[in-house]
Amino acid sequence: MTIAIIGAGLTGASAAAELREQGYDGDIVLVGAEPHAPYERPPLSKDILLGKGTAADAAAKDEGWYADNGVELITGTRVTALDTAARTFEVDGRTISYDDLLIATGATSRHLPMADESGVPVAYLRTVEESEELKQHLGGSLLIVGAGWIGLEVASAARAAGGAVTVVESAPLPLVGAIGEDMARVFADLHREHGVDLHLDTSLTTLEQDEGGTRAVLSDGTEVRPDLVLVAIGAVPDTALAEAAGLEVDHGILVDARLRTSDPHVYAAGDVAHHDHPELGRLRVEHWDTAIKQGQHAARSMLGGEEPYARQPYFFTDQYDLGMEYVGHLGREGYDEIVVRGDHASRVLNAVMISDGTVVAAMHTNDWDATDHLRAWLGRDATDRLRDTSVALADTFEG
Description:
Pfam families: Pyr_redox_2, Reductase_C
Structural class: alpha/beta
CATH class of the largest domain: Alpha Beta
GO molecular function: oxidoreductase activity, acting on NAD(P)H
Strand order of the largest sheet: 3-2-1-7-19
Number of domains: 3
Number of helices: 11
Strand content: 25-35%
Shape: globular
Cofactor: FAD
CATH topology of the largest domain: FAD/NAD(P)-binding domain
Radius of gyration: 22 Å
Protein name: NAD(P)/FAD-dependent oxidoreductase
Largest sheet: 5 strands, parallel
Domain Reductase C-terminal: 314-394
């Protein structure tokens, strides 16, 4: 029996490891487009930029793990064709047959045509090479388009390196879609206090090269002269192979609760998977924890597991002296009530977000004992005790 994995990122590596953990002794083929063994992406905008880690530190597995565990690792090449009827794919001049297949092709940076066509120095951040190149420019003048997780983490690293940073964001607050207005203000205040020139409700209207170098004009009239422009406006799932093979695709590869695609022998997980979550409905999650956990779950499903993937999303960020962990999912409806313990001044706080009386998401900043308690509240009806901020979070559970 052969199980093939297309996409040698963290999801693919996690799936391969789980197959062996579960006792699968058949062939495993793991194919990746990048010229590296699988690695974790969070360090690209954190430790590597801050000089606290290297690309080698980001490796998903030790160098010899794949050979030691009988995993054929093929890197630096793309699968050129997938035939789901014949259960074969083409890669590097070979035709490889599979019994079951996992697609874990991830996502690519969303590009900004205005920037790409401007002729000015433009960067994106998705790969080790891009991170190492960006690190060389952090001490200069940086314009960041997009105040999402990548944009803000790079802003933090650049300020630590002594760089001048301007961030432009079209939304009224950074991260507002992910964490809501109340907590988004924490991050807006954080970056402004650290000297970031943050322009919200603002767009980039002009980007050009003139005799003075790069000239950028924002919709609020501000003119910026950056050495480099970083575009950090999100990611696009890499569905090209799946689409060409006739799999159902809609904002990602459509998978059922077990992570199976429209073909019963093909699964998808990680950034590329648009998952039918049993509690949250359709969603696609681009975070480290989901890459690991969905990779592991897909492996178990391919071995006959019937359990749905029901884990709630989790993500984290480190910016300046602030660390944050978040669990749950707000969705388009957001929340109609928020309960905050702690205070904004010290930024040691936790928050529980409630919709129609049910806890849908929660997060903390610098409150490291809170995570397990916050996760335990997900999906529960909020109580008066939870809402009473004079009661410690750990003591809010009744019975």
